[in-house]
Amino acid sequence: xxxxxxxxxxxxxxxxxxxxxxxxxxxxxxxxxxxxxxxxxxxxxxxxxxxxxxxxxxxxxxxxxxxxxxxxxxxxxxxxxxxxxxxxxxxxxxxxxxxxxxxxxxxxxxxxxxxxxxxxxxxxxxxxxxxxxxxxxxxxxxxxxxxxxxxxxxxxxxxxxxxxxxxxxxxxxxxxxxxxxxxxxxxxxxxxxxxxxxxxxxxxxxxxxxxxxxxxxxxxxxxxxxxxxxxxxxxxxxxxxxxxxxxxxxxxxxxxxxxxxxxxxxxxxxxxxxxxxxxxxx
Length: 282
Prior knowledge:
Blueprint lengths: L1 H27 L6 H8 L3 H12 L3 H18 L4 H7 L5 H12 L3 H6 L5 E7 L6 E6 L2 E7 L4 H9 L6 E4 L1 H11 L16 H10 L8 E2 H7 L6 H9 L12 E2 L12 H13 L2
Parallel strand pairs: 1-4, 5-6
Antiparallel strand pairs: 1-2, 2-3
């Protein structure tokens, strides 16, 4: 009991220190403060601060600041800013730093992020699936995206539209139902045409996902080794997370290195259901 109370007391003190550090980083992230500056704001040594911050927030102080910068730059590009403007908005010295930031967080260049969907025309629609209502984007060459309508159809479509913000869209639920019948029936999945729009790196990772057989699972590290980049697990994770076609490109079969279910764009509960569904069907 004494040890438990001590731990709780220490945890309470850590909370107040980290809350102060988060406020400091939130106010000063555009200056990209170094570890020493953030540690001083928390009243801790750099080593101790790095350890406590990472435990509480889940990422290092540097990655936390990078995430804030990336979100701001992404919003600026979506609003029509040029590369230089987006870089300055994110507190970066120029497009070169912006390029590095986007590669680290999305595994795409800022130009790719800005141009997504330009010149493309999609038919989109909603159809029932074993895992809830599916929202689909269909291009002339094949299926380009499939998400789920969580918490509603509008949210599901917004999820996909955000991936291709410069594209044009028309709705046709009948087309979506035809695709659902092909995708979710036992004989319907043969040679389904997929029209994938992503960077060469993303498409390489997505092709690697297609090699994972139903009922099998793998890890991000194994995917990285498969694409001949064994040290690129983080970039692989970003490409897996950017997978636009749920279920058919089976990112739900990728687990953490310890075998546990990890974050899934369409929900861990759905990921668990998908794996159970495949296991039950052999």
